[in-house]
Write a structure and sequence with these properties.
Mean pLDDT: 84
CATH topology: endopeptidase fold (from Nostoc punctiforme)
CATH architecture: Alpha-Beta Complex
Shape: globular
Distance between the termini: 9 Å
Oligomer: single chain
């Protein structure tokens, strides 16, 4: 098994499968769009605390918040981008930018737009404010926006606002960035 402490670095992503109806619908939508339907959520690893607990930041209903990442790391479904080289921006800057997003509202309009996209219907565009912090995010667009700000490679969806967990799945798998953490 991989030594997680040795490979998981600040600003790496945990692209995960969670349970529940909404999670199932997100993966169904990915399948309907002929995208990988492995994951339904994306979290940004931040740090290990003094007790060895891994902490991540994530966009979720209720707003961007902290998450104990142990269940994500332990899951055999979790994809990571731990193998992705980063240059330009720094991991510390990315994590500081992510912390500044704490409390940012969840983007329900984007979730609706993603669902319609899965059905091949686009009623509106979701442009992200380039250079500015978005006022609302979902998990995957939060990660895409953060990576865009640092100049790091991320899924090419035409706009970070339309980035889904399936886009991250495809990006990580086709780029060869995944490192198996556990499970």
């Amino acid at each position: 098994m991989t030594d997680v402490h040795a490979v998981l670095q600040p600003a790496d992503l945990l692209i995960v499968r969670t349970g529940g109806f909404a999670a199932d619908m997100i993966r169904l939508g990915a399948a309907l769009s002929n995208k990988p339907n492995i994951s339904n959520h994306v979290a940004i690893f931040h740090h290990w605390d003094d007790n060895g607990v891994p902490w991540a930041l994530e966009g979720r209903p209720g707003g961007v918040g902290w998450q104990d990442a142990r269940p994500y790391i332990a899951s055999h479904w979790t994809l990571t981008n731990c193998g992705q080289p980063v240059s330009g921006g720094s991991r510390a800057d990315a994590c500081a930018r992510a912390v500044r997003m704490l409390g940012t509202r969840y983007d329900w309009k984007e979730i609706g737009g993603d669902a319609l996209e899965d059905l091949h219907v686009r009623l509106w565009d979701q442009p992200m404010p380039h250079g500015l912090a978005p006022g609302e995010v979902v998990c995957s667009s939060f990660a895409a926006w953060l990576y865009e700000q640092e100049g790091w490679a991320h899924p090419d969806t035409g706009d970070e606002g339309f980035c889904t967990p399936a886009d991250w799945d495809r990006f990580v798998m086709t780029s060869g960035y995944n490192i198996f953490l556990g499970g």
